[in-house]
Amino acid sequence: MTQQPVVFKGTRKGLSIYIANDAKIEDIRSAADSKLKSGKPFFDGATVNLTFLGREFNSQEQSQLLELFAQYMKIGTVEFTQAPARQEEYPSDDHYNFFDGIEEGMARFVRGTVRSGQRIFYEGNIVVIGDVNPGGEVIAGGNILVLGTLRGIAYAGATGNSSAVVASYCLQPTQLRIAGYITRAPEGETIKPPYPEVAYIKGDQLIIEPYLPGKGKQAESILQTKV
Amino acid sequence: MGEVIVITSGKGGVGKTTTTANIGTALALEGKKVVLIDADIGLRNLDVVMGLENRIVYDLVDVVEGTCRLKQALIRDKRFNGLHLLPAAQTRDKNAVTPAQMQKLCEELKQHFDFILIDCPAGIEQGFKNAIAGADKAVVVTVPEVSAVRDADRIIGLLASNELPNPLLIVNRLRMDMVKRGDMMDIDDTIDILGVDLLGVVPDDEKIIVSSNRGEPAVTEDSSLAGQAYRNIAKRLLGEDVPLMNLQTEETFMDKLRKLFSGKNKKKH
Q: Which of A19, A167, B22, B192 is the most exposed place for a label (fewest CB within 10 A)?
């Protein structure tokens, strides 16, 4: 396995960036840029603490790198440190690719309604005990459950896990995103679903269907395809 | 000890100033000592709606800057016993006052009045922060339009993060005929989204425009539907249990029949 020039790893403190000792600065920048692009919605607007590990940089290179990261996020603290002593301590590349605690993993509980202008953001699963109103956003690395009406934007699997789901007692989102898939409410008259529904990705499509057996089976609907 | 109530909405033009003027006047008619504060510095309107524009000598900014005493700036409304206005400055802007100064001012006014109503400017910036700083309670005004409800929702969120949870809601300018045709959001839809307690519903009423232009609050007119709604709201603020006005009086048997059929048709589509 050839070592990647740049590897991202999310930690409790923020984002650790492992950089190969022998990588050229151009390669590092282009690799970091493509990774940041793919994670753009995840980082967007969030304040992130950065720790660079590995290759040493001179001050000019450091500022170039920070400039690049600043395009995608608000930078919190920055630290440049030496590489871990042993090669094994480098995380494997797919480690950060997505939050994989879909079946069982960390979760954040939000009490009360997420109103317009509020944004809930968490790396794991999110449970909202209340509504999500239009203009409100819920972004999770894992699943999103809304124990109320979902009228705003929900983005599950924001770090790329396409097996994440969005479930709500009343699913009427402005926009629904799961991993790289995005759908919006159909034009025209809005129908209020009388039963709880779940949205997930099957094959190449984002599917919305009731999750209680025997309820509204005939109303099962397949929405738009991949964007 | 009085109560400070801020009247806010987020969106402009939904009737904050009219609401402030009418509730204030109605409370004064109920025998309470009331002061209305216009917090919309630089775009003052409350004095015009109250018909007190030509009596302004000192204003809110003069008070907080110590140019005059509080008593000098308060304009006593001679028509209604116990009603006072603290006008905004027109030549300054929102940054002329700080939230701390507003807080101090409200504390002082609380000693002398039963109700202090603050007319909040539109927006969520400095003016809004000033207006809510000293408030004990908030009233959110909205109209049954999607954009106004969206803004009201944002405002309710901001109020909650500023220690003013559970504001009361006034749905202004409701047109029953449009609701019946399905062209306007009805009250239930609005409350369902916002999830707060309803303080009152004010029907759309042409007389409001006339009375605002004349500087005579609509609550003084017995024939005005909106005036009646504001009188009810004032009574509810005083703790009375007043049922919502029946705005559907003109619904006949034929209307009900039509509604029934149009409802059925909708489901088929």
A: B192
